[in-house]
Every structure is written in structure tokens, then in C-alpha cells.
Amino acid sequence: MPAQDERPLVLIAEGHADSREMYALFLLAAGFRILEAATSDEALVRALCQRPQLVIADLGLPGSVDGADLCASLKQRPSPPAVIILTAWTLERKLERARAAGSDRVIVKPCVPQALLTEIHHLLAPPSAA
Question: pTM to 2 decimals?
């Protein structure tokens, strides 16, 4: 296993504590370092200060902006993180808004942790030599 400081850092921005904790514990056991945020404001501060490689944000994240606006803000920064938007919304206009914000993946809940882990591995995998 890589040294602690070499493990990818993932920020989970989710307003529901139970969901946030479930994903955090699963990803921690899978070898990631984890940051948690309950609001978009907290997530933005943590992302800017601690620079995670990946942000997982709920589209309906509470705070001054939602998950799509958080994503758009992060994607405008130098060296932006990969962003996965998790959402219970299934309306196409909501999903399209998340895509338009620059998210790397949009995943509809419920999402089992193993499926999320598969998407994370795809996003964080080093580019293969073709």
C-alpha cells in the first residue's frame, strides 16, 4: 500500500450525514484519504485549501450554491479536481445542468459504493500508453 501521503485525496460533499459517512468509510477502506463537507461552502473551502484529486458532490448539496455550481467553480481553478456529481434527480434537465457545469461523471442515486469506486478508478487511473 502507498505511503499515507501518496494515497489519493477525495472530498465527499454530501448534505446527508448517513450517505456521506457510508461513502467515506467505504472509500477509506479502499485506500483513499477522505475529506468530508456537509455544505457547498465548506466543500469549496476544503477543496481550495487541501486540493483533493477528486470531489464527489451531491447535486442538491445545501449551502450558498448547489453541487453543479460548486463543480463549475472548481473547474475554473488551475489544476481542477475530477468531479463526480451524485444525485437523486432523474430529470434530464437536472442531469444536463450537472454535465454542463463540467462534471466528469454524473451518477444517479442510489449508487452502491462499489459502483462509485469503479468510476473513481476510471477517473484517477493514469493515462495508458497507447
Answer: 0.90
75: containing domain: 4-122
Average pLDDT over residues 42-64: 96
Percent of the chain with pLDDT over 90: 82
Beta-bridge partners for 58: 86
For residues 34 and 24, is the Cβ–Cβ distance under 8 A? yes
Q: Which amino acid would we find at residue 38?
A: A
Number of separate domains in the chain: 1
**Which H or E element spans position 93?**
helix 92-100
CATH number for the domain harbouring residue 35: 3.40.50.2300
Decide if 24 contacts 36 (C-beta within 8 A).
yes
Mean pLDDT of 43-53: 97
pLDDT at 7: 93
Residue 91 in domain:
yes
CA nearest to 15, candidates 86, 92, 72: 86
Return the residue matching grid coordinates 458532490. Answer: 57
Query: Is the CB of residue 85 less than 8 Å from the CB of residue 103?
Result: yes
In a domain, 23, yes or no: yes
The pLDDT value recorded for residue 115 is 93
